[in-house]
Input
Amino acid sequence: MKTKIFPLLLACCIVALTLPNSGARVVQAQTSEEAFQQEFEAYAATHTQEELVAYAQQRVLQIAQSELEPEPNVPIPLESDDIPSCIRARKEACRRGYNGEIFSNAAVGVGILAGCAVGTAGTGTIFCVVFVVVGQQFANAGSRERHGQCEITAVQDCFDKQDVR
Output
């Protein structure tokens, strides 16, 4: 019984630290949408439509880069019988999956932005660009939530694996 309580407490702590308040995310998204709208309108005032789209593609890549979780500084064991090594290995798998999702979100965003240049003009291009960049932020938020859940599951699985032995 005692070994079952610790993983649950640890999982609760990770959830509290990892998952943002959904109401705060909506406010943040609205704020970022307005900020992106202003940023892209200002850029469009002095640049061509193609330059605006290229700039937006760079912003998508910058956002992705800022979201990536860095490689750990310690070696990660492939599999191990002890709980700390198991957790490190499983969390590394979560990190790699999360970073893969962030790269995928960025690739989709860059591709859609290329369509903004072809299928729109003027304010339609600005709307398209803002829509894609804000959409990428929502996709990244979903990736963060899945990453947090993956880490919780990793901890639980390692403790469950230990209990079986």
Remarks:
- The chain has one domain: 2-164.
